[in-house]
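I'm curious: can you give me some protein's one-letter sequence along with its backbone structure tokens because I've never seen that pairing?
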Amino acid sequence: VGMGKSTLLAATNIQRGVPWTASGCDFANSNGSSMRAGPIGVMFFHSPATLARVACDQATCTHNSSLCRAG
């Protein structure tokens, strides 16, 4: 329970001034971004294109690997 290593590294990067678009770990293949995806589906179910973009964006900030961004 608590913050995973990828999220901790991303938060540290953001604190150091790294933009959120580059703060995520590109080597992380963990599930932190998947755990945050549920509310995005609820909020954007009416617009699949927006849902996909927002889901990818929220993954990018902490888990910037192609596997994690793919869902």
Remarks:
- The radius of gyration is 12 Å.
- Residues 17 and 23 are 9 Å apart (CA to CA).
- Residues 48-60 form the longest helix (13 residues).
